[in-house]
Amino acid sequence: MFEFLNFDEIDWEDAPRGYYLTDVKQKVLWKDHNTGATLALIKFPIGVADKIHSHPNAKQITIGLSGELLMPPDNKPMKVLPNMVVTAPKDGKHGATNFTEESIILFFWDGSPAPEIHE
């Protein structure tokens, strides 16, 4: 059976992972409690949002919905605009994302999104 969600009816909550550097909020839209796979809207304020990290147990797919950011894959900043898709392979290092305006991004992890921090 299909499940329909109205994003406006889901409250923003604090993002639980401890590697965020700013006041990041999330709306978890779906989660598989067996695998950890997760679909979430995440709202980022202006500034550098997170530490360099990877997800050892999940590929990450991100879709920009609003806002703008600079993300340094391979140490080369890249503008990611709304409606672009960016993927990170399992255990692929990413992060140190600099948001140039408040942004809302749709994230999907195909396994547990628990991060490994890389200093």
**CATH class membership:** Mainly Beta
The third-level CATH topology is Jelly Rolls
> Could you name the ranges where pLDDT drops below 50 across 5 or more consecutive residues?
none
Main sheet characteristics = 8 strands, antiparallel
Approximately what portion of the residues adopt beta-strand conformation?
Answer: 35-45%
Rg over CA atoms, rounded to whole Å, is: 14 Å
Per CATH, which architecture? Sandwich
Question: Helix segment count?
Answer: 0
- How many E-type strands? 10
Helix content: under 10%
Tell me the domain tally. 1
Cα separation of the termini:
44 Å
Explain what the structure shows.
The chain has strands spanning 13-14, 25-31, 38-44, 47-48, 53-54, 60-71, 78-80, 85-88, 98-109, 116-117. The strands form two sheets. Strands 1, 2, 3, 4, 6, 7, 8 and 9 form an eight-stranded antiparallel beta sheet that branches. It has a two-stranded antiparallel ribbon with strand order 5-10. It has one domain (11-106): Jelly Rolls, CATH 2.60.120.10. A hairpin with a 6-residue loop joins strand 6 (60-71) and strand 7. By secondary structure, it is mainly β. The chain is built from no helices and ten strands. The mean pLDDT is 89.
Short overview:
The chain has 119 residues and is mainly β.
Using brief descriptors, characterize the structure shown.
119 residues, Jelly Rolls, two-stranded antiparallel sheet, mainly beta, globular, eight-stranded antiparallel β-sheet
Give a topology summary.
Elements: E1 13-14, E2 25-31, E3 38-44, E4 47-48, E5 53-54, E6 60-71, E7 78-80, E8 85-88, E9 98-109, E10 116-117
Antiparallel strand pairs: 1-2, 2-3, 3-9, 4-9, 5-10, 6-7, 6-8, 6-9
